[in-house]
Amino acid sequence: MQETPQDSPTDDSAEATAARQSWWRRLSGGLQRSSSAIGGAIAHVVAKRQLDAATIEEIEDALVRADLGADTAARVATELRYGRFSTSITPDEIKAVVAAEVEKALVGVAQPLVVDTTKKPFVILVAGVNGSGKTTTIGKLAAQFRAEGRSVMLAAGDTFRAAAIEQLKIWATRSGSEFIAREAGADAAGLAFDAVRAAKDRGIDVLLIDTAGRLQNRTELMGELEKIVRVIKKIDPTAPHAVLLVLDATVGQNALSQVEIFQKSVGVTGLAMTKLDGTARGGILVAIAAKFAVPVHYVGVGESIDDLAPFSARDFARAIAGLEA
After folding, report:
1. Which of 185, 136, 180, 141 is nearest to 162 (CA)?
2. Helix, strand, or coil (residue 242)
3. Looking at residue 192, which CATH number applies to its domain?
4. Do residues 125 and 209 touch, judged by C-beta distance below 8 A?
5. By 3-state DSSP, what share of the chain in percent is helix, strand and coil, each rounded to 5?
6. Number of Cβ within a 10 Å radius of residue 149
7. How far is residue 126's CA from residue 135's CA, in Å, rounded to a whole number?
């Protein structure tokens, strides 16, 4: 009797390799502005003279200007100063040192967002300042969770803007997720309370709660976010199970203060950095990792649904240094 052909492990491996190559192209393309800024600075400095103390200092300054942070830049400088390099070092050799030090800084924070299946619903509160890309990130995450076979509910907690409610509703429809909202101007904490209760009643696996964009220096708005957390805990004392802070890479150094204040206010458990394709300041993620050691779950390099992916320290480090995968 002839056996039915099965997909071979080789087929699966080829598919995984193709998917990885596709993501690498998007990531390296998205980080091109950042890698060009770093690579251009390195090439300019190296072209002028051999590797000496002044050259190393210029390279260190260039890395600080690229928002990689003083700590990482200093480690690169130390490696160049004391590593076994000839004075005729090439730009690619310097990039390799940059990539290695960036990877060291990031490897400890590159952690996936793990959904605890014993929590039903697993509540993810999504926060960030105006324009950071929260609603779009929620939509992309909903699509990913649905593709994994999970039931999902989206809660339109950005009650300040009717447009945000409508945008989230579109994402819910597109991803096949359930949706809960109130009229514009309604109490956001009340909406969050209703959402957790409804998700429990319906046996939903993952509840993603959108929140209004708020400037981190507006005390009353941060207080409202704290209220949402308190209200959620009235239904499930363990929730929210994840607090995802969405950061816009284009803001550069301002992202550091965002992490600090949101962390103090609502206990951020992980980060998603968006719009890396729109800036030469992608190195700020390295500075954030060095200062706060907050897990980085996702990076986004575009508008399509596939342009948000789990964070890989090695991939990011090589892409931002301008090296091949």
Report:
1. 185
2. strand
3. 3.40.50.300
4. yes
5. 55, 10, 30
6. 7
7. 9
Model confidence pLDDT, tens digit, residues 170-229:
999 999 999 999 998 899 999 999 999 999 999 999 999 999 886 655 677 788 899 999
Interaxial angle between packed helices 313-321 and 32-48, expressed in degrees from 0 to 180 and rounded to the nearest 10: 50
Domain total of the chain: 1
Query: Within a 10 A sphere around the Cβ of 240, how many other Cβ atoms?
Result: 25
| Global pTM value | 0.89
| Token pair for 14 | 């080829």
Report yes or no on 184 lying in a domain: yes
Within a domain: 83: no
Sheet holding 152-155, edge to edge: 178-180, 152-155, 206-209, 122-127, 242-248, 270-274, 296-300, 308-310
Distance CA 59, CA 76 (A): 9
> In this predicted model, what pLDDT tens digit does every residue of 50-105 receive, in sequence order?
778 888 898 899 899 888 889 999 999 999 888 767 667 888 888 999 999 999 99
Beta strands in 138-282 (DSSP E): 152-155, 178-180, 206-209, 242-248, 270-274
Helix (H, G, I), strand (E, B) or coil at 246: strand
Domain assignment of residue 190, yes or no: yes
Neighbours of 29 (CB within 10 A): 14
β-strand 178-180 against 206-209: which pairing, if any?
unpaired
H or E element, residue 141: helix 134-147
Secondary structure E strands in the chain: 122-127, 152-155, 178-180, 206-209, 242-248, 270-274, 296-300, 308-310
Domain enclosing residue 132, as ranges: 122-310
The secondary structure of 114-140, three-state, reads CCCCCCCCEEEEEECCCCCCHHHHHHH
Asked if residue 35 belongs to a domain, the reply is: no
Could you tell me whether strands 178-180 and 152-155 are parallel, antiparallel, or unpaired per DSSP bridges? parallel
